[in-house]
Amino acid sequence: MKLKSLNKYISLLILVISFLPVKAENEIDIWNKEKKIKSEINAVEKNSPNTTVNTKVFSTNNINNNIKVENKILDDSQKIKIFGIYDPAENDFNLNMWSSTKAEDIRSSIKRINKIKLSDTSKKLFENTLFSYAYPPKGMDDKEFIDLKINWMIRNKRTNLVEKFLKQNDSFHNKKKIIQYLVDENISQGNIKKSCDKISFIDKNIKDSYLEKFKIYCLIFNNKKNEAQLLYDILKEQNRSDNFFNDKINFLLGITSKTSNKIKEDNLLNFYLSSITIKDFEYEPKKKTKKEIWDYLNSANLIKLEDVTDKKKLRSLEIAANEGQLDKEKVFDIYKKIPFDLNALVNANNIYQTLNTSDSRALIYQKFLLSDNTESKIKLLILLQDLFKKDELSNVYTNFLSDRLKELNLENVDESYQEVVQNNIIYEEELNMGKIKYDDKILHRSRLLKFYTENEDPQKIQKDFAKIYKKIKRNKKYFYSAKDLALMHSFAADGIKIPDDQKYQELLKKYVVPVNLLQLAKNNESAFLTLKIVEIIGEDDPHQLDSETIYFITHLLNQTNLKKIRNEVLISALPLRP
């Protein structure tokens, strides 16, 4: 018995010893693997504006990877997640671009920016900053940070940006909100097919009754009634349907032959289902009617004034158009339908004052349409402008007036009328302002700009700089402007050598850069500094700013090494264009 026990013990010991190398080997492999992961993450986190971030880090498949800190796997409550659209390196940012900035500063800045009608440049700059992949600022979790992005896209109707965001980010907080916006936006434009295409963004993790109801309707719309019936049965079993939806879907599936005439407007889907299932659908929008319902009524051509003598309803439609709820062209369509006899049209300039305000505008508008004289048309359009102003309905008319004036031939019109026309035309300035005209007599307009506008070779620019500077130096009256200094400061930052006898650093002392903004650059708060620049540029484009502002903006961007953003400012602000 003792020998048997001993043999058993020896066998067990041999078995344990045989497994030891395997276990040790596994421990080494795990350690090496963790060390490798840590090394990769550190490499990403240490990216500075001078380094290139590997774009593979931001591929769709890797965006929401767990981030490992100090060789320790974080649990679900500690995972740091990043969401965005742009690789931060595309704009000289990095993953830590917000890390030195307080959350409250970001909130306050975005709140101010939301009140500004941003120019195209400002908007691009803001979106490139906010939608770069990055960690949230101090004191803000990833949920609040992503809400800032989502709310911006929805508030500004950035539908294309929404779709990019959904394609590049898998699972994130409030995903159902952004998908519902996308669905509603397409319904409101009357594009049901396109709206149904967006249900591809609805994954199994999203449990939202609104989106699932819309998915059921889309299956019916695409003639997949069996699949629609299946999903509808599941929705009912989960008690996530309601009597109104049941009534409409049963009617659309052909289960019932009648449906209620009740119009439900608590959300756009219910309103849309009402409009397509009720025979001879009629709806009277109210002051509190939601904007998306107004948009749908416009696109579906459901706003009509059958009785043009109903002045109360006409007035409500004029107010709705002025507030941006109703398509403004609808008002002029109604004006055309209001009947006037020949005498009234001939004597419109005298009779309009005896009519109510809506009829007076309609009469003058019809008189304008019948007129074949340019000067007469201008007079009538200006009179009509006064009539809209008098009733505080200028928003209805401003763009209409501009468009009609653009159509007129002013060659043979008196100069005084031409001035009136020019003062009332709205010119949409494009960012592409035409071919650049280089002028080597002025430094910031010289062909040296080709370094930024045409990616000219640095060696060629260096030679050209010597030649142009020699010419300018001969002009004893030449004044180095803030724009000249913006260009030289940027050249120096890009490695272009400034002539030794050009004491541009002394000239820089004449111009003051705001201390608070310099401090942001010093603190490495590059992203927050960019938001401050967005606030400064605001409704303007860089070429509309004064010289000193252009200088200190480019100076700050040089300080923070945000050269791609700086280049866009330089290209807009410095060149002379026709």
Description:
The chain is mainly α and 578 residues long. Among the domains are: 2-47; 97-140 and 434-578, no CATH class; 330-424, no CATH class. Helix content is 58%, strand content 0%. It is built from 28 helices and no strands. It has helices at 2-45, 103-113, 120-130, 142-155, 159-168, 175-188, 192-197, 209-221, 225-237, 243-253, 268-277, 291-299, 311-322, 328-337, 342-346, 348-351, 357-370, 374-390, 394-406, 415-424, 450-453, 458-474, 482-493, 504-508, 515-522, 526-537, 547-559, 563-573. Helix 2 (103-113) runs parallel beside helix 26.
Order of helices and strands: HHHHHHHHHHHHHHHHHHHHHHHHHHHH
Return the average pLDDT rounded to an integer: 85
Percent in helix: 55-70%
- Given the helix and strand composition, which structural class is it? mainly alpha
Jot down its keywords.
flat; 578 residues; mainly alpha
Please describe the topology of this protein.
Blueprint: H1 2-45, H2 103-113, H3 120-130, H4 142-155, H5 159-168, H6 175-188, H7 192-197, H8 209-221, H9 225-237, H10 243-253, H11 268-277, H12 291-299, H13 311-322, H14 328-337, H15 342-346, H16 348-351, H17 357-370, H18 374-390, H19 394-406, H20 415-424, H21 450-453, H22 458-474, H23 482-493, H24 504-508, H25 515-522, H26 526-537, H27 547-559, H28 563-573
